[in-house]
């Protein structure tokens, strides 16, 4: 990847070269609270000691990256936000151990051993069957001793599903802001709420550094159903194939497309994992359909005629209806309550808006894949070509693809039980 910081003054790069080889980030910055969305995210160090980075970077990429960090800390005005991102991510890297070393340890927990072996097989499949990057990502493992690696904060106005953007170094403008600490994320959400925004804090089990670092396997997702582990690995590696600065719906929809195709292909050769995943995925598909239906109704409400007071009243009615429909849906699941936590907190525009971010262009990308005869390398090439066009042109073409019969077939495929596709 070309350096984003190549034109920095030489004195900053000299500082970076002095700093980088030591592999140390001062633990004194660990109280700062925010994350660079897809790459650097915030985790508080467990001690006040310096964090030693074990992961080796490509020298030029590492130096350029360090130059960027120095620039940020020197003058961007968001020192706390970026410092927690840097310290948090390097803490994750510090905690990671090579999978090969762990598997060589006879005292390793048998359950973890089995999961790591499966994850390595999935990682190899991503390269050989999906043409995803063959690098050091997901060749190591870190136990963070918490349920999520980061917490993303989404915010939206009271009468719109348009998410508030945060514009950050490297990744550009994105529709969320991430923290390694739940408390820090909630504090930022509370600050936005006081300013009139509706907010949603979402725990995130995995993220991508876009190939700048070797992202590790994490305890936050390693014990999920095997196909779900595969889905996450395929998704995060897809971000290393393609990332468009400042276009979250494009990036996430592309990654969701790759993960969807990848999981279905992987399950075709792993029927033992399919039954386990069918139940897991069936609930998620029905939940997605429920939320998407109400999202469309809210969009129509906010874009229609009527006073703000009337729209607010109708909004409350829709959210009440959504809760009732979820209870009816849950009753048909025979006791499964996996989405109760999502409904436990307030339903609001930020929560609904965050849902759309990951799926907006998936049918369009699936249609493009079909045009490329389901050949993933050809699909990647076509999407990369599309990504180089101005955003307004990209969106116009994706909108056209969304209206094709191939996109309609993709929607039906996404909504169909996995059993129907074997």
Question: What does it look like?
Answer:
By secondary structure, the protein is mainly alpha-helical. The chain has a domain at 10-95. It has helices at 10-19, 59-75, 79-95, 99-103, 110-128, 182-194, 226-241, 248-268, 271-303, 308-331, 340-344, 349-357, 362-371, 376-387, 391-402, 405-415; strands spanning 24-25, 51-52, 97-98, 140-142, 150-156, 166-168, 172-174, 177-179, 198-204, 217-218. Strand 6 and strand 7 form a beta hairpin. The two termini are 38 Å apart.
Strand order within the widest beta sheet: 3-4-10
Helix tally equals 16
Basic shape: globular
Give the end-to-end Cα distance, rounded to a whole number of Å: 38 Å
Largest sheet: 3 strands, mixed
Average the pLDDT over all residues and give the rounded result: 83
Overall number of strands: 10
Short characterization:
The protein has 422 residues and is mainly α. The chain has a domain at 10-95.
Any chance you could write out the topology, listing elements then pairs?
Blueprint lengths: L9 H10 L4 E2 L25 E2 L6 H17 L3 H17 L1 E2 H5 L6 H19 L11 E3 L7 E7 L9 E3 L3 E3 L2 E3 L2 H13 L3 E7 L12 E2 L7 H16 L6 H21 L2 H33 L4 H24 L8 H5 L4 H9 L4 H10 L4 H12 L3 H12 L2 H11 L7
Parallel strand pairs: 4-10
Antiparallel strand pairs: 1-2, 3-4, 5-8, 5-9, 6-7
InterPro entries: Aminopept
Keywords: Aminopeptidase, Hydrolase, Protease
Protein name: Aminopeptidase
